[in-house]
Amino acid sequence: MGFFSSKPKEVKAPISIGLDEKEYPFYIKAPMTLIGLYLFFYFLYLLQDIIVPFAFAGLISILLNPVYNRFVRWNFNKILAIVCTIFLALLVVAGIMFFLSSQIAQFGEMLPQLKTKAVSLIHDLQSWLSAKFNVSNEKQTSMVNDALNEAMNSGKTYVGKTLNTVFGVVSFFILIPLYIFLLLFYKPLILNFVFEVFDEHNSERVAEILQETKGAVQSYIVGLMIETTIIAVLNSTALLILGVKYAVLLGVIGAILNLIPYIGGLIAIILPVLISFITNDGFTTPLLIIGAYTLIQFADNNIIVPRIVSSKVSVNALISILIVLLGGTLWGVSGMFLSIPFAAVLKIIFDRIEELKPWGKLLGDTMPEHAPPKVVDPREAEDDTKTLL
Fold this sequence. Notes:
single chain; disordered N terminus
């Protein structure tokens, strides 16, 4: 028993939201639109402590819904089925965290050695800069300290924003399971509300939107899990072959960072390169790491993601980068993770509403067969004019 029973698909006209036909001058509509957008994002920022954990809980509850339905089919009590579902999810999360913590503990044992080697490399770099560019060690130290202070301040603000989003780590692990429990428990009530909000003649189309949204979110999250596992194995294997210390830890961290579209993959390369600089001599290993990670990223972007992740979530690269950056600015790291599935849900809704279909096409990755020639290629427009004459 899913979110709703499946029905044979029929061709129907898109839902019309019934916009007012009264036209207002541009100098009135433009400021009102800008004010509306500002207030919308401002309220999203103010309410992030409530919205972000609830959004994560919504995505996870959709992902766990098939597991919950399985327990219900096994004649489990409703509350017991939800508790068992959440317990299994917590076991998986606890296993991942235990693995990462054990790897981090091993990494911590080598911190004094890494610190000594890092200090030596920095001293050699300062000597080279002094010889080549005539920059004194005092000036270099001052510049580095200023840069580090600025980076630390911005980093604290960024991380603080993320931690405040979920009331800290403790609240994160309390609120989200509670929200998941309540969402699964009140699922019939929520679905009934959604159907009653719209007119009765739109009920089948609303069901289609909900069905596609559920499928898109489930396939996206499951696809991300499979992709993360594959990338973690590929990263760890490459680093082990190259003899990089803490290969498994760095490979897993790189795979987790890769969850942030387009940006995380670039950041993931920096960590193993820095470790190889500190633990090895020469530039051969860092260059080989960059080459290996580049090949893995190429395979990820052109083979793994299109076949595993993007089967239901077809948001083009330009929009993906913009919304990831916007989500990061708005809600920190949490916003980066939430941005892509939210964009996919918006695209599904836009494609079903007549007045918003152009926005759905803008979010998608399907190129139009016949673009306006006067905009794309003025010479084609001139040829068309001559033909008409």
